[in-house]
Write a structure and sequence with these properties.
Layout (H helix, E strand, L loop, with lengths): L17 H7 L42 E3 L6 E3 L3 E4 L4 E3 H4 L1
Antiparallel strand pairs: 1-2, 3-4
Protein name: DUF4193 domain-containing protein
Organism: Microbacterium gallinarum
InterPro entries: DUF4193
């Protein structure tokens, strides 16, 4: 027996009104923010938040003997990524490709 998969399917559960369905679905345009974010337990900042009073402590390590800074992309790379030296400085393999 062939089945028409394009035919609309109706069951007894489909009798709910549009208003009942709208009440169950949260409004995407509302200003409510889900503060129970399991992936970020320390909280989160919204874009445009004032962070002027926040102090950041960052440890900056001096350049290591086996590292160089690419003169093209300005990323710190391992010496194994060195392709060649230019008049501006060392260049990594990705930038010279």
């Amino acid at each position: 027996m062939a089945t028409d998969y394009d035919a609309p399917r109706k069951t007894e559960d489909d009798s709910e009104s549009i208003e009942a369905l709208k009440e169950r679905v949260p409004d995407k345009l509302s200003g409510a923010v889900d503060v129970e974010d399991a992936d970020n337990p320390s909280g989160f900042e919204l874009p445009g938040a004032d962070l002027s009073d926040l102090e950041l402590d960052v440890v900056v390590l001096p350049p290591q003997e086996d590292e160089f800074t690419c003169s093209n992309c300005f990323l710190v790379k391992h010496r194994s990524q060195l392709d060649h030296e230019t008049s501006d400085g060392p260049m990594c393999r990705e930038c010279s490709a």
